[in-house]
Write a structure and sequence with these properties.
Length: about 110
């Protein structure tokens, strides 16, 4: 947890691509090279996150795997916290998509 967890998730192994380089390159590509985003498409931005959450929560509930993120570990927290975390993460995902869409729309 803490700083060590952050360093691991951002700078070690494949996580460098998953959590740092790919998102940065995607944002640069979206803001610099894409046409103006269409607001109706925003609702689709969260679909990959929702699918990922559903699959990982099920796999955690079936004890096929643990994590990989603390908020997906259904046996380490109350069930309602898993739902709250899913809503928070999906909300953050939507907020990022909305913010980037607004920035893209102003160019």
């Amino acid at each position: 947890g803490g700083w060590n967890g952050y360093k691991t998730m951002m700078f070690q192994g494949i996580s460098v691509f998953t959590h740092l380089l790919t998102p940065i390159l995607s944002i640069v590509s979206f803001l610099c090279f894409e046409e103006k985003a269409l607001k109706p498409l925003l609702r689709y931005a969260v679909i990959p996150t929702i699918l990922y959450a559903v699959v990982l929560v099920i796999l955690n509930a079936l004890k096929v795997l643990t994590g990989p993120y603390f908020f997906l570990r259904v046996y380490d927290q109350a069930l309602y916290m898993t739902f709250i975390w899913c809503i928070v993460v999906i909300g953050i995902d939507f907020a990022i998509a909305f913010g980037l869409s607004r920035i893209n729309h102003t160019k």
